[in-house]
Amino acid sequence: MPIRPLTPADLPSSEITPESLYLNRREWLAAAGLAVGAIAGASALIPRAAGAQQPLGTPYGLRPDDKATPWDDVTSYNNFYEFGTSKDEPAEMAKGFKPRPWTVKVDGLVKKPGDYALDDLLKAGKVEDRIYRHRCVEAWSMVIPWRGIMLADVLKRAEPTPGAKYVEFTTLYDPNRMPGQRSPVLRWPYTEGLRLDEAMHPLTLLASGVYGRDLPNQNGAPLRLVTPWKYGFKGIKSIVRIRLTDKQPSTAWNDSAPSEYGFYCNVNPTVDHPRWSQAKERRIGEFLRRPTLMFNGYAEQVASLYSGMDLRKNY
Amino acid sequence: MQMPMWWEQVRAVKRPPWWKWAVWIAILAPGLATIAALLSDFLMNTRWLGSNPIKEGEQILGKLTIKYLVATLAVTPLRSLLGWNWLGRERRTLGLTAFFYALTHFLWYVLLDIQLDGRDLAEDLTKRTYIIVGFAALLVMLPLALTSTTAAIARLRKKWVTLHRWTYVVPILGIVHWWMSVKADIGEPVLYSVTFAALLGWRWWHARRETSSHATTTPARPGPA
Fold first, then answer.
1. What 3-state DSSP class applies to A178?
2. Class (C level, CATH) for A13-306
């Protein structure tokens, strides 16, 4: 399958908001929010924490009303069961986690397997900032400025053999450093998988940062997967192994509840989760729900990957 | 059996004069605080309920419902254990509180979570088992709440006792609703299941003891245990 190039022109790095600006946004937003709230009254969107966000990297497929979700929300509302099952636990429980030194094994059906120190792994591609929509399977969403490289570059360097059809990702397993792994809420270590063409897609990122900084621990430091057209749990965190295989890898949530979480996990407003509708989502920071977009709004880029497939069966 | 002195003193504690106010605060404060936190988060950009205040508040109210149901069922065992007969009237207070929290939880879901989306509501109430179960709990509570007045108790007499045995079904539905709604972490639902089992187990044990040792000498206490 041909890889379709993406169109948006790269923005110069001067467009990126300086750290000092976005870290202090809460303060003036508090004042701005009050003023705007008073004006807006009972009207549609109450911009609790939205506000005018400067472009931060390349806004891939963003719409005019997609504003980057504030740093505080991106880094305090996390599903990362390795550090606790509530949303606020990971930020607290991962405080002492040391994400460096870090080694990633790239192996399986490749001509050049290897163990890479994180910085060496990242040399496979060009580190760039990209703003993506992020849709959680729980029907909330964010807009997140990631920093990372294309997974395709890492895979190309390893040279997949012709038999390679899938990529399996594995999170660190170390219950001493990841205390959530001491309770059997999921099968540890967390694993995820992509078809090789999905993994090679130019939208697929290996992210090492967010908001222009290294990933905070609760966001999956030091390295995580980002596939913006899939539900968030596909974005496996704290990756230690990338293995190419000829068989569809087993994935943690699919193992846990196969009727609720499939292998593909593509964002699809027409296929409900058994326990809730996926037709709408709540963007963090907004009051009213928004309609969920097919492939999370990336249909133009990725729909061809699934042509002819029954997305009801392959959820 | 001789009881130690301090235990006799505990059992002799009378209803303190501030009790009524303490109860009012205990039943109102958590709900009012949750609503105030939501308003503050949206209007003043605070973070009392975190990044997703609507979802957080909804879950807080659901858990509060379960907690007041526990409290309701704990009154009779506590009264019996401590000999504080004045606790008895709080069964009604706490039961009604649980009902109002369940109702608020439901209204929060309809108004703030799905925001009056009729299609969502219709699908949830017909296709999603955990929502059906939760709604059933609310429906079971409704006639109990409506017949909680002194006049209704007097009018219904024995029928009231039978009707209000449904109280024991509510926490079971509530916990099943909660258990089915979590993704993987069943820790808290399990904890509350054990608590409910203990409170129901105490009643069973107590009833057995009463019938075996006092059946002929002690008349049955009126009202449900």
1. coil
2. alpha beta
